[in-house]
Amino acid sequence: MNLIFCIHNHQPVGNMDFILEEAYERAYMPFFEMLKDFKDVTINLHFSGFLFSWLLENKPEYIALLKTLKERGQVEIVTGGMYEPILSLLPQEDGTGQIRMHADLMEEVFGDRPQGLWLAERVYEPHIPLVLGKAGISYTLVDDNHFKAVGLTEDDLYGYFTTEHEGHRLSIFPGLEFLRYAIPFKPLEVIDGYLRGIEKKEGDLAVFGDDGEKFGLWPGTYRSVYEEGWLRAFFSYLTENKDWLKTITFSEYLSNKPAKGLVYLDCQSYKEMGEWALPPSLSKEYGACVSETGSEKRNLLKGGYFKHFLVKYPESNDMHKKMLSVTKKADRNGEAKRDVFMAQCNDSYWHGVFGGLYLPHLRASVYEHLIEAEKRLDPEKAFVTASMEDINMDGEDEAILSNKALKAYFLPREGGVLYELDHKQTSTNIMATLTRRYEGYHDKIKVASVGGATDGTKTIHDVVLAKEAGLDRYLYYDWYRRASLIDHVMTQDVTWDVFYRSAYVEPGDFVKERYAAGVRNGKKSVNLSMKRQGHFWKDGQGIPLSIEKTVCLDAEESALYVDYLVEGEIREPFLLGVEFNFSFLGTGGERYMEIGFEKLPLTVKGIFRSSRRVFFHDPYQRIEPAIELDDEPLSIWTFPVEVVSLSETGFERNYQSTMCMPIWKVDLTDGSKSIRMKLHVNGIGSNNHLQ
Predict the structure, then answer these.
(1) Were both Cys, which of 175, 357, 552, 651 would link to 351 (CB 3.0–4.6 Å)?
(2) Element containing residue 581 per DSSP (H, E)
(3) What does the buried/exposed string (b/e) look like for 374-387 if buried means 16 or more CB atoms within 10 Å of the residue's CB?
(4) Could you read off the pLDDT of 222-259 as tens digits, one per residue?
(5) Which of 15, 116, 620 is nearest to 346 (CA)?
């Protein structure tokens, strides 16, 4: 009998050096230091391109060790998309290009060109054989879940299958879920019993493929895997049982064994991903159904579709559709294309037990590389443009204003809000925010263990930990999207506290409603006009009220000028708040905000006295956004937007943005109300002139 043992090591583009260093010290290095002592153990190995490039630059001794193991025949190198994209989210040409780039690097370092591919998050769609075939790939690995979903049983899966798309043939190996959950968490006798059971059924092959980080980096595993000796015992077990259980490479097995037959797989990933991709309420129901259903029928339960993450999280869709827009323009510019490839790293586009989309530095990395690519494609001379186009692919036009310094995106259909503002000098989207929303796992927070440790016998899917006590106190959910230029029409009795908790009723119907919009292009400046004929609702009656906002971008400035005109038939004073949300990668260090000339931390909460100026300083992203108001507001409200999310180390509170809202008391008894503001963004230590 044969065992294919495949390790996948990955760190996302934009992850911080200290995280990579910790992963190296706790998982990547000790694993292979251990492996070199067991010459009869053979594994298959994949490194994502960003991590491998970091290792090449920072850990030459590690690369030397890998080469030694490869030369011994202990390691077969498996390729993948260079920056670990979900291939089904990409144009086919990009997917093929990423695979070729990674395979080129592996061939350069190790001498052989890989024939097999690690499929990121095992997200399979029927066209994948075409993408892989064009890149010269002959085999890949997915989960047994993929096969069971189309009617096969586990007893059918002790080998590999073939499939095709448009005549492009691909061999597919099924990774066994039992081994994925057992290694390195279960006692060896449990694993031995399972493998001997396969042999008794005359099964010829068992395949394990999973993350290398579970060997030391996942909670509790460094102690269990290395200090308590699980991995050494496992390698010893494989060595001592090599007379009946042989560790083998994918290529060796393919060369000596025929396929078990033809198969056509559906759109699938591993089963947990199917749960995470569902809307929160259905995710809970799906989890309950899986728990309540017998194992023989569980395979008939299909979860969600990976691409639904783009619907579940509009912030993910924004990044994805911007990426699609930029990659079309970058085909003839190699440097721009590489930046696009880096922005295609999958982690930022979804969320499950890993932080993913909820981690601001990963979203910032996506925008950084997309903005870098766009800068390479921009005209060399000063320019300014305005357009209406359906960039988000939702059937409605967005408005886009751009010059050499800024690129601003607006949603006329949803309150006319500003949802992305790219500062090109620093390659920063200062509005890469995230909305506070309900997640199905929030119901588990009150039973989570605070600051606890796991003994390494449970996977991250089974551990319920919290990084701090009282996280349920931060579970507030927004009823609208956290963006900027959000128009709040409120009664005078609305308090800061109910606004912070999103626990109030707004009489105005402007925040999420449609604004009529149009753009005007001039030689030196462009305008976007947005207007809504809305209402102030009182006692069931809608009193006519209109808000018009005009945004101007000049070719020579790193600033947006916004003019408001409020008119209506309401004859009592009300509050008008214009909400802004600025995203930073954290709140500590030398970051701060100023209201007037009072310096405040980004985490400050409360109501501040009237001021015509709000200023932010972030030396880490080298950026200074500011709001200047011609008309002095009644007050300015502010608070940090924080979410409670799940990561592999437990529940945690994550800062996403700082909300800042100037508020005016508006009385239309004697006519209309006009407000003018300037939103400008400067780079720290840069020439901010556009000449």
Answers:
(1) 357
(2) strand 574-582
(3) bbbeeeeeeebebe
(4) 999 999 999 999 999 999 999 999 999 999 999 999 99
(5) 15
Assigned CATH topology for domain 2-269: 7-stranded beta/alpha barrel (3.20.110)
121 is catalytic: yes
Q: What six digits make up the tokens of 624?
A: 């200074």
Which two three-digit tokens encode residue 253?
């097995």
The correct CATH number of 378-437+469-683 out of 1.20.1640.10, 2.70.98.10, 1.10.260.40, 1.10.10.10 is 2.70.98.10
617 sits in which H/E element: strand 613-617
- The DSSP secondary structure of 480-493, one letter per residue, reads S---BSEEEEE-TT
Q: Is 211 a catalytic residue?
A: yes
Q: Residue written as tokens 């609702």? A: 537
Distance (Å, rounded) from C-alpha 495 to C-alpha 447? 32
Domain spans of the chain? 2-269, 270-310, 378-437+469-683
The catalytic position among 121, 347, 374, 397 is 121
User: Catalytic: which of 199, 211, 331, 563?
Assistant: 211
What pTM, to 2 d.p., does this model score? 0.95
Q: How many CB atoms sit inside 10 A of residue 350's CB?
A: 25
Q: Which two tokens stand for residue 112?
A: 């052989």
Q: Report which residue type is found at 616.
A: F
List the structure tokens of 590: 């030398």
Task: Give the amino acid at 587.
Answer: T
| pLDDT tens-digit map of 427-443 | 999 999 999 999 989 98
